């Protein structure tokens, strides 16, 4: 007899540290291990059902939108939209009602309104849909005063080589799941629903390891680094870092998506010891170069026998971390996905990181970190930001409500 789909709450308060870092994306084992459900299958004494990953659902309704503190699924597609001419607050409200209804259905494993392929909705695979509002939306709806405090357009940094193809946008749809088909179907439904209101400006797809990864393991990025270790966890301030308490945005957050290209050809020619110094952590296990294990606190004062800092002055983690730069120097929640789009017209590998960061306040949390990294970061020799877009992510909604109601309702 098939097991009922397992529904997880996406409330961060119910996430263990292990779940948060656990990147469920670890196939059947990972998805089940974190979900606490497993137990359903294993307690019955047999193998987990073959379609357990496909049938897993994550609750859509709640105080916060899912897909932010929800452990990162294996696949993500980010879609940026431009509003059509003449779309006003009432029209955006209509779109958000439709999108909310469709997202609530799809994430629960049900077909959307006028679903072109209802069978594809049956395996949501931990699907989450997260909506965001770009700076231009506030102008379009005639509500400049509703721009959240500190939600300023991201400046172009000296390291940036931004391409309009990956930059800006009035609306964001972020779709994540442990299965590409579930993601593609949800994106298709939401893009079609948006057509009378908005057109797609860009679409970016990313991935994480999704099979054979130990539950709780931090994933690696395309440079081979263990990436995600020092993210805030529920027991060390996750809620304060991420969730806003400001006006209509209360229970929501802000998000920046940076498309950061990696020059892997030159990176691959760098000696492993130099690669480790560029980050400040070991390649083998992600432990700080100052010693200990992956999750141990780095010691930024330690020097080697030549008197040189073991975690160099320009190491990425030293420049990025609040610990090294003092209280108030910025904390964010990172949710990075690798991208690999083959080769470009010049034959160069077109790959890198879709760097997504969430923070209650954009100007005082994200910007100071990015400014420091733009000024000095050893990683800059092999990475180039080529896209950048910021969004306010409204709070979640309860059944009967809709995303964005606090602003548009
Ligand atoms: C391709 C670009 C990037 C790569 C490959 C990368 C890689 C890494 C790695 C391997 C770590 C150490 C492990 C960890 O704690 O996750 C790390 C830490 C971190 N990164 Fe990045 N990163 C990139 C871009 C950025 C950007 C654009 C920002 C923010 C503007 C950022 C902010 C941070 C922060 C805040 C930490 C944690 C520092 C700490 O508290 O120890 N990173 N990154």
TrEMBL record:
Any matching Pfam family: Dyp_perox_C
Segments forming domain Dyp-type peroxidase C-terminal: 218-397
Cofactors that this protein relies on: heme b
UniProt cross-references to SUPFAM superfamilies, sorted A to Z: Dimeric alpha+beta barrel
The keyword S-adenosyl-L-methionine is annotated on this UniProt entry: no
Domain Dyp-type peroxidase N-terminal: from-to ranges: 65-207
Protein name, as recorded: Dyp-type peroxidase
UniProt source species: Amycolatopsis cynarae
Lineage: Bacteria, Bacillati, Actinomycetota, Actinomycetes, Pseudonocardiales
């Amino acid at each position: 007899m098939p097991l009922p789909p397992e529904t997880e709450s996406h409330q961060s308060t119910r996430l263990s540290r292990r779940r948060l870092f656990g990147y469920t994306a670890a196939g059947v084992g990972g998805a089940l291990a974190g979900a606490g459900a497993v137990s359903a299958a294993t307690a019955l004494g047999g193998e987990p059902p073959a379609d357990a990953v496909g049938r897993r659902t994550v609750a859509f309704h709640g105080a916060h939108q899912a897909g932010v503190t929800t452990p990162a699924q294996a696949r993500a597609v980010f879609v940026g939209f431009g509003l059509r001419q003449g779309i006003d607050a009432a029209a955006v409200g209509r779109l958000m009602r439709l999108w909310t209804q469709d997202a609530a259905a799809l994430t629960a494993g049900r077909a959307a309104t006028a679903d072109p392929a209802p069978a594809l909705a049956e395996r949501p695979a931990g699907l989450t849909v997260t909506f965001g509002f770009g700076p231009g939306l506030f102008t379009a709806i005639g509500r400049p005063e509703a721009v959240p405090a500190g939600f300023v357009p991201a400046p172009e940094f000296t390291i940036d080589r931004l391409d309009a193809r990956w930059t800006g946008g009035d609306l964001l749809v972020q779709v994540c799941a442990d299965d590409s088909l579930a993601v593609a179907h949800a994106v298709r439904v939401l893009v079609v629903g948006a057509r009378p209101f908005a057109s797609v400006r860009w679409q970016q797809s990313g991935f994480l390891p999704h099979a054979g990864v130990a539950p709780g393991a931090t994933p690696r990025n395309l440079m081979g680094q263990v990436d995600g270790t020092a993210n805030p966890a529920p027991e060390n301030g996750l809620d304060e870092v991420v969730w806003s308490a400001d006006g209509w945005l209360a229970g929501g957050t802000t998000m920046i998506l940076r498309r950061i290209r990696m020059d892997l050809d030159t990176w691959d020619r760098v000696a492993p010891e130099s690669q480790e110094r560029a980050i400040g952590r070991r390649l083998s296990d992600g432990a700080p170069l100052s010693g200990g294990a992956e999750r141990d606190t780095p010691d930024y004062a330690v020097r080697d026998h030549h008197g040189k800092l073991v975690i160099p002055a320009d190491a990425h983690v030293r420049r990025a971390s609040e610990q090294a730069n003092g209280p108030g120097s910025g904390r964010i929640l990172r949710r990075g996905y690798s991208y690999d789009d083959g080769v470009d017209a010049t034959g160069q590998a077109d790959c890198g990181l879709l760097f997504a960061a969430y923070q209650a306040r954009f100007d005082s949390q994200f910007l100071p970190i990015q400014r420091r990294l733009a000024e000095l970061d050893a990683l800059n020799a092999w990475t180039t930001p080529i896209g950048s877009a910021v969004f306010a992510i409204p709070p979640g909604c309860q059944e009967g409500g809709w995303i964005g109601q606090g602003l548009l309702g």
